[in-house]
Amino acid sequence: MEENHKRDHWVLLNPGEDNELEAFGYQTQTLRRALCLLGSVLSCGILRLLFYWRPQWNVWAHCVPCPLQEADVVLLRTTDEFQKYTRKKVFCLYLSVLKNPINPKSGDIVADRHSVINRAVLKPELKVRCIQVQKIRYVWDNVEERFQKVGLLEDSNSCSDIHNTFGSGLGKEEQEIRRLICGLNTIEVEIQPVWKLLVKQVLNPFYVFQAFTLTLWLSQGYIEYSIAIIILTVISIVLSVYNLWQQSVNLHNLVEDHNKIQTTIHTKEEGLQELESHLLVPGDILVLPGKFSLPCDAVLIDGSCIVNEGMLTGESIPVTKTRLPHMESTTPWKSHSLEDYRRHVLFCGTEVIQTKPAGPGPVRAVVLHTGFNTAKGDLVRSILYPRPLNFQLYNDAFKFIVFLAFLGVVGFFYAFGVYMYHGTSARDTVTMSLLLLTVSVPPVLPAALTTGIFYAQKRLKKKKIFCISPQRINMCGQINLVCFDKTGTLTEDGLDLWGAVPVMGNCFQEVHSFTSGCALPWGPLCGAMASCHSLIVLDGTIQGDPLDVKMFEGTSWIIEDSSVDYSDSGIPASSTIIKPGPQASQTPAKAVAILHQFPFSSGLQRMSVITQQIGKDHFDAYMKGAPEMVARFCRPETVPPNFKEALKLYTMQGFRVIGLAHKPLKAGKQPEMGIHTREEVESELTFLGLLIMENRLKKETKPVLRELSSARIRTVMITGDNLQTAITVAKNSEMIPQGNKVILIEANEPEGFSPASVTWQLLEDKVDGHRNKETCLSIQDGSFHEGRPGDDYHFAMSGKSYRVITQHFSNLLPKILVNGAIFARMSPGQKSSLVEEFQKLNYYVGMCGDGANDCGALKMAHAGISLSEQEASVASPFTSKTANIECVPHLIREGRAALVSSFGVFKYLTMYGVIQLIGTSLLYWQLQLFGNYQYLMQDVAITLMVCLTMSSTHAYPKLAPYRPAGQLISPPLLLSVFLNACFSGIVQIWAFLFVKQQPWYCEVQRYSQCFLANRSDSFSDASVDGNLTMGNGTLTSNSVLSFESTTLWPITTLNCITVAFIFSKGKPFRKPVYTNYLFSFLLFAALGVTLFITFADIPVIYSGMELIPTITTWRISVLAASLVHFCVAFFVEDAILQNRAFWLLIKKKWGVHSKSQYRKWQRKLAQDPSWPPTNRMDYSVEGKNGFYVNPAYENSESTPVPTGDVIRRSTEQHFWTRL
Asked: Which family does it belong to (predicted)?
């Protein structure tokens, strides 16, 4: 019974998705609410504030657990490592409010039998229970007993369901029901009121603590310093609120027009009807005009269209969308065939450029998703609700702040004990104890930690690298593996036609060179090149895929103007007409109509078209795509027996090779009406030949890859191109150094009784010797992979082999990835999967690409860099307007500089708090403290100015062959803080005790008259009198004026300057500190002012600073002590703590190894004499669960790939918001 109750109390939302959540049911109790209200009043709102910071405490205090179907409050918890809680109120919708009353005894509420709406309506009340989570509405499914999304058509609908159920449109009654339950089709981003943003900022735990601190300081008369901090805090809050408000306005303006689009829909009762887009519901039939901005996601059911998906992909290449086939099958529509279902879907926010009706009727689509369920809505939600960033720096920083707060608490009890021991009043004891509590956490912490990122972002912008995720810049400093797309990234985007290799009589013929000036003779090969594409004419220019454009231009044909009417010849108006140009070879065809397209898909690696010669009753089908894929659909007798050898010959020279095929279709059918399916067209084809295209390396590629290699950053190629072409490009670009071995991995699925197999083949380098010599000479002076075992071989595989290995040899995958360099024929999903697998091995992965098929991998990587002309591509955190890979080392350099700056600033602020805590604690021992202006000098003139400028040091121009530390909690960094705290403590304690031994010393606060009577002749009466008669708020002057404070103040100030200098180290990740002119000037200015105040002997200054003049020799002793402290601290920091060779020696001596998974695998494989396997085949055996595994590779050592400890890409959240 108890187990059933727990199961009813808990459910999983969005299982398996990125936004997976756990939902717990609770019911509010009146007595608990009353008690919580009383507690909030008695605690002066502190309890209410705690409930605001911790929503789960709020729910647990007000409610009791109950089954979800009875809950009025739902507590949500993320399933990631952050376990973040959110409280949501359950609300109810009543169908009785609709204009058209519904009979409670009727059957289904809506016609769609798959719809969750039918299961969500509770009868006879006609009530629907809902929650709203991150702009998405969920309804309670009474049958499956869980919350489910509404605002979309269920994926369980088959193709025939969509055509039959929604093909004629929705009825008015069903539209109203769906509109009420699903909500309006709007993507509304309200402009946040300034007061609300202000309240959210002020209620941040850090600012609440700061408000408490400032209130305490003001009550004790620290007017000037408190006002300075208040001004800085107000400026910081105002800037933050303004930035948040500006982002809110920009996002609101971005989506505002989306909600005001006029659409035409088709309904059952009224036929065509004009409707505002915000009234659309899932299942409506949308009629598409010529040019149109889509207000929702929709699936095409009639006709085809061409859309610009630049808003989603950053790539403004027209994409052809085709109708969803009307298939009598129960298979869900997204998996009706191997074809990518996205080819039928029109995404919200994209632009329809051109529509092509399939018959007399218009182009129609069924509304699939509305509101925030759409592609554009999902994009906006990812901006509104970013996932927290899992980066070790922020986790460690949070722990450091807790440690500083702990020091403050220790200081509180120390002060409490001291003041109680001396018998001071309870009020003074509590006040002074709270003052010491506030010393350890510096108030400039938030501003200081964001400055490094701000400066790095500013420098990146100057290099035309734009960032929509600033907190990810620090992660770039840890990148140790970069994945590159090939075409358009490593190689030129544009392809040059090199030649065509026709096939006749089952044999390859002589190569036709396009550079010879001779036109390609008319024939099926020419027909395929002229028609097998998805090009369109916009504003008089041909637009489409660059490869298609080059191929079409090579035929010298032209695309006919759409104004020419060929309807007399029976050609549909939507067809693209091509005809020979003036330079084309003679042909009997006056023009050719492209009647139907089966568009190219990265997953399918091919496209096909159906054409008709105008004036003839003859139809042809053409296919182009990856040669291996095209040959698979051709009759075997038409494929030359030396096909593989010929293909390898061209791909090994780095050419891009396209296969072409053809077959005539039976006359009398009307292909434009969609009678021919793709499966019928793409079968029994005749192989026509190969199209050879030259894809040159970009001039920047080789130097950048060489720079990354010398910096010990792995480079990997992930491409959709041919494997041999990718290997050749990798060798020519020196991604694979000269002399290194390439092992080709080919894995095959199990067939019949044969298990899955994997073949390891060592590739011999057969390129000509001249090219080898050039490559060898070009890398002689590079120090690539010195002495690292296992770096002299690289694995290369195709997407097919990758799929087989992940399914049947999963334990083999990490071994391959440690040395995998080339992954070819990879689908977009496989690219994302590969990046994730690298992350599981604890690599920090960068991904650089330019195409739509890279979007998933760009988002998955720790640092995705899109080469796009747009200023900010939504596909990735970083966008480079310079379309080459030079942006990669720029980004890594700036990331390293920002990371080191963040560490330096954090170490300084920690030390600053510790220095002040030690100095103040020593003075507390005799019931004293530093003066107002003494604190002001240290806090504002030094710490604030230094922290805001320390991070502006530029990145070092050369990448070091190692990364900066990625953890604050590491031996060198902890030792740095600990030893510097010890040095500072020793100097301050020495000064505090030694000053008492001086013959001229007296306890000023106790023997002030004696001190005046026995003063030295070197003292100034005016200065001393001025100090003794000076007030300081509610505290007496004697609590500040003393020889101890006069001695400790210059020492603590010089300590702050010392640690600021030694923590601002330059090489190897930043330029030398003297190149940061502003920081250097402020540091020397602070030093000069401190020495001037110490040695000036000017009464006004001593009076204002609340110092007592001492003899010059004592001041020189204080300066000498500070100088010794500086020398010791600098030597220890620079020669020991920052000495990488020293720490490597210690690691080697103690046998300390990296805990990263990829390092574990490298060490294990280096000791395995049988690795890497070459020229052999391995088979899997069937395991207990029916999966294929390879016992030869089962691991006795415990080196598993962690599944839970994955550093996932996520969007940003500062660590202090976790408080």
From this structure: Belongs to the cation transport ATPase (P-type) (TC 3.A.3) family. Type V subfamily.
- The answer to whether position 342 is within a domain reads yes
As a whole number of angstroms, the distance between CA 234 and CA 236 comes to 5
Domain closes at, from 694, 710, 740: 694
3-state secondary structure 644-712: HHHHHHHHCCCEEEEEEEEEEECCCCCHHHCCCCHHHHCCCEEEEEEEEEECCECCCHHHHHHHHHHCC
What's the whole-number average pLDDT of the chain?
A: 79
Pairwise CA distance, residues 1215 & 161, whole Å: 49
Reported residue count of the chain is 1219
Residue range 118-148, pLDDT digits in tens? 888 888 788 889 999 888 899 998 888 888 8
Q: What is the pLDDT of residues 748-800, one digit of tens each?
A: 888 777 888 888 888 765 444 333 333 332 223 333 333 344 567 899 998 88
Tell me the CA distances in angstroms from 157 to 115, 172, 321, 335, 900, one per residue in order.
Answer: 9, 22, 20, 11, 53
- Judge whether 550 lies within some domain: yes
In this structure, the answer to whether residues 962 and 914 fall within a common structural domain is yes
Catalytic residue among 396, 485, 850, 854: 485
pLDDT band at 1021 (very low <50, low <70, confident <90, very high): very low
Give 684-697 pLDDT, tens digit per residue.
Answer: 889 989 988 887 88
Report how far residue 706's alpha carbon sits from residue 782's, in angstroms, rounded to the nearest whole number: 8
Pairing state of beta strands 714-718 and 820-824?
parallel
SS3 936: helix
**What is the CATH number for 400?**
1.20.1110.10
Residue 1065 falls within a domain, yes or no?
A: yes
Question: Considering only CA atoms, which of 450, 484, 498, 355 is closest in space to residue 846?
Answer: 484
Residue in 595, 618, 617 with CA at minimum distance from that of residue 608? 595
Among the three residues 120, 150, 180, which one is the final residue of a domain in this structure?
A: 150
Domain count, the chain: 6
Helix (H) or strand (E) holding 955: none
Residues 979 and 1077 in one domain: yes
Question: Which tokens sit at 479?
Answer: 């990148």
Q: In CATH, what number is assigned to the domain containing residue 820? A: 3.40.50.1000
Going by DSSP bridges, is the β-strand pair 481-484/714-718 parallel, antiparallel, or unpaired? parallel
485 is an active site residue: yes
Check whether residue 458 and residue 484 sit in a common domain: no
Q: Which residues of 1025-1055 are buried (b: 16+ CB within 10 A; e: fewer)?
A: ebbbeeebeebebbbbbbbbbbbbbbbbbbb
> Where residue 320 sits, what CATH number does that domain have?
2.70.150.10
The verdict on residue 1190 lying in a domain is no
The 3-class secondary structure across 855-872, one letter per residue, is HHHHHHCCEEEEECCCCC
State the residue range of the domain holding 582: 519-694
CB 779 within 8 A of CB 706: yes
Residue 582 sits in the same domain as residue 679: yes
- 758 in Cβ contact with 747 (< 8 Å): yes
Q: What is the mean pLDDT of residues 886-908?
A: 89
Instruction: State residue 319's pLDDT score.
Output: 78
- Position with higher pLDDT, 408 vs 386: 408
My answer on whether 612 and 668 are in the same domain is: yes
Q: Both 569 and 630 in a single domain?
A: yes
* Residues 567 and 690 both lie in one domain: yes
Per residue in 1113-1162, pLDDT (tens digit) is 998 999 999 999 999 999 998 888 888 888 888 888 887 777 888 888 88
- The helix (H) or strand (E) run that includes residue 413 is helix 392-421
* Residues sharing a CB contact under 8 Å with residue 661, sequence separation 6 or more, in sequence order: 528, 622, 623, 624, 630, 633, 634, 685, 686, 687, 688
pLDDT in tens, 138-191: 999 888 888 888 888 888 888 888 888 888 888 888 888 888 888 888 888 888
- 682 with 549, same domain? yes
